[in-house]
Write a structure and sequence with these properties.
The chain is mainly beta. The protein contains 1 helix and 7 strands. The strands form 2 sheets. A 5-stranded antiparallel sheet has the order 3-2-5-6-7. A two-stranded antiparallel sheet has the order 1-4. A hairpin with a 7-residue loop joins strand 5 and strand 6. The two termini are 27 Å apart. It comes from Poecilia latipinna.
């Protein structure tokens, strides 16, 4: 397995057409469930370590950010971007995630890698 050692710089720009999960809607009632807007943020992990977290964007299912994160990585295997709904009560609700293998980035043949990863809904 290929590992990455070096400086990682990630810029998070946007998430598109996020859908609330059934768990996110557990407190919603009536027609409001059809137009439920999320209060979203993205958690950034390298392997199992938290590297950063975006600010929360309120009442939108297509949030935009301009957040950059830089970290030193030793023996890194994967980057995980997880989208959460900032719940007003209890733990935050998982919405979606994306895993990018460092191997895929390294095989792109460039020091710069840009991608629009598809998400997996929870």
């Amino acid at each position: 397995m290929v590992v990455f050692n070096g400086q990682l710089k990630i810029k998070i720009c946007e998430a598109l057409d996020l859908k609330p999960t059934a768990w996110s809607l557990r407190h919603a009632v009536g027609p409001k469930t059809q137009t439920f807007l999320l209060d979203t943020y993205i958690a950034l992990n390298v392997d199992d370590s938290r590297v950063g977290q975006t600010s929360t964007k309120q009442k939108t299912n297509s949030p935009t950010w301009n957040d950059e994160f830089t970290t030193e990585v030793i023996d890194g295997r994967r980057i995980e971007l997880s989208v959460f709904h900032d719940a007003p009560i209890g733990y935050d609700d998982f919405v979606a995630n994306c895993i990018i293998q460092f191997e895929d980035i390294l095989h792109s043949g460039s020091k710069h890698y840009e991608n629009w990863p598809n998400h997996s809904e929870g």
